[in-house]
Amino acid sequence: NILTRTCWSRLPLARPGQCARFCVKMPNKSKQCVGSVSAQSAAADRGEPNPGPGQQENRGDDDIIKSPSDPKQYRYIELNNGLRALLISDFSSSEGKSDDEDDDDEEDDDDDDDDDEEEEDEEDDDEDDDSGEGTEDESEEEDEQDGEDEEREGNKKKKKDSEKQSAAALCIGVGSFSDPEDLPGLAHFLEHMVFMGSEKYPRENGFDAFLKKHGGNDNASTDCERTVFQFDVQRKRFREALDRWAQFFICPLMIRDAVDREVEAVDSEYQLAKPSDSHRKEMLFGSLAKPHHPMGKFCWGNAQTLKTEPKKNKINVYKRLRKFWKRHYSAHYMTLAVQSRETLDTLEQWVREIFSSIPNSGLPRPEFSHLLEPFNTPAFNKLYRVVPVRKEHSLTITWALPPQEKHYRVKPLHYLAWLIGHEGAGSILSLLRKKCWALALYGGNSETGFDQNSTYSIFSINITLTDHGFQNFYQVADLVFQYVKMLQRLGPQRRIYEEIQKIEANEFRFQEQTDPIEYVEDVCENMQLFAKEDFLTGDQLLFEFNPEVIGSVLNLLTPDKVNLLLLSPEHQSLCPLQEKWFGTQYCVEEITKQWSDRWASDFDLNSDFHLPAENQFIATDFTLKPSDAEDTEFPVKVADTERGCVWYKKDNKFKIPKAYVWFHLISPLIQKSPKNLVLFDVMVNMLLYSVSEPAYEADVAQLEYKLTAEEHGLVIKVKGFNHKLRLLFNLIVDHLADFSAPPDVFSMFTEQLKKSYFNILIKPEKLA
Length: 768
Fold this sequence. Notes:
It comes from Clarias magur. One of its GO terms (molecular function) is metal ion binding. The longest helix is centred in the first third of the chain and has 19 residues, at 97-115. This protein starts with a strand and ends with a helix. The strands form 3 sheets. It has an 8-stranded mixed beta sheet. Strand 3 and strand 4 (84-89) form a beta hairpin. The radius of gyration is 27 Å and the shape is globular. The chain folds into 3 domains: 2-31 and 623-767, CATH 3.30.830.10; 39-355, CATH 3.30.830.10; 383-492 and 545-600, Cytochrome Bc1 Complex, Chain A, domain 1 (2-Layer Sandwich). The chain is built from 26 helices and 20 strands. By secondary structure, it is an alpha+beta fold.
């Protein structure tokens, strides 16, 4: 798997099968559009006329590259105080007045209902959901499967509701790296405190109450070098919400009486994060940095750092908080993205009227780019044994590289992650699975502030090990180094780069519309990192193949510069050390001389390793399928035989060249006995395992599949571009027809399912 900003979804565990049931959904008209284009040419691709005099007020910037499937208009402006803003208009001159009236009627109804609420109830809202770094989702895959139907229905409602929402996000180019040495977590704490009312709107938590009353939400997060605030609300209330929200950055009260309460809120987030293995690994890794490098700071903050120790050292936290706000919450560090169904002229007027009052400190932005090589220390290039919270084995192989943000047009780490995280024939994971040493492998850079900032970039490979793999973890690492050495010998490959480029371009070209609040959050951060024309593309597209840039990074991935982190519950008795903030138990040792000597030599490569073959699943034909079927609200039965039934629904709304197929293979044998149910579960998981390697190329080419064990049979779901979807479906059916159960694979999955069943059955709601 590839760890990038766009996460690849993992397939859930599966369950059986005999009578077939299909549901197919396909578009029916052709559509002409190629690649990434400007706003003007994208409109032309959609058959829209050039803007006339009546449309000038919604005229966007032609040089901001957007997807041909994106109907929104964009305009970039800079205010006199230095704030930079991107205006995003959902407005269309073809929208009927009735639509707006419907919106207003709904909103007025909401207002009538909410007017009856007590003010005291509104003020009871706390700040817990507004800020801070969230904990990782560590739920079991079975839970994801159980909640799939509910999630699908929820997503439909959410998408419908979000179409009427307006949203804004503001990114400040300052984060936890700027925390004072004597007040760890101050940036995160300030992110909480600005919500405590303003001079213009003094009511504490009044903004939350306003959003709740008008169907909105807000959130905020603090990273190493950036802090982001975002909210959404009903369109009718957007201007008022903008004005209320902007006061956080113009003149927040940050009332003294709220300090202790918000310290407790920050401490609560810290306590919730402590059981997360990913956060624990980050804090341990950060502790390996050079003394006084900001990577070693405790960015979360808690009651100890923000209350107990300051009181002991006679530090006035309130004064320091206001000083930090005045110094760092400056307009010329800020980027703003706003999205609404208003014209661009209207949005520009609102933004200029409201946000021009944000003060500009006139001081240079905090700079850390001179603090390079933070992990060039004796503590690095070691083996760290760690006791995890979760009962599993894993190996994390990490290199600390020079900062790579400036190479966003080449994306060398994305290219390397694609190859190292590959799951097809000839890959690292393919060989590890054959040896029954690993269950999963993720490689790359998450592009969070921890993984990538102005001082360094991380390249990590995380491998989930089997019990046997844990016993042979040095051999696992050795295979990784062999594969990397093969890549170094072969050098950067234009064919592979262009395949990745084509896949990302296809996804961008036919991208689905994102919820406004998520979209503006991404865009305002992109504005801190990329050139104006790349605000919408810089985090996704690969623009240019540069073998020198890729090769320079690839050649740094050597064993003598690596750090190994081995997690296992079996380390409990071996780890006397404890990380200061999260209490992670660990021990450190030198990499075994046998292996360090081997890796320092010109070691041989495994002959099973090779580059991926040409990807046959990449779509190149995007014409829409003609159909004379009538428009229907629901799928219609078009075939009914003794072997099965087919239902079909024509897509006349989105008109994209994609199909969705659900195939239900039904068998009465599954429910005959508990033994049958369990054997069926094992069978479907083994089928998924056998399919995963040959189907991996389809997965990365934007074709999706799921094999799920339902109550009465096996459900096969495939979706993606029409052009190559049949290849994927045939591949799955062929593996089902030729199903076999090798004893070692059978044993591996029976052991895995025992653990899964145990984790399910210890949950009270499952037993109930």
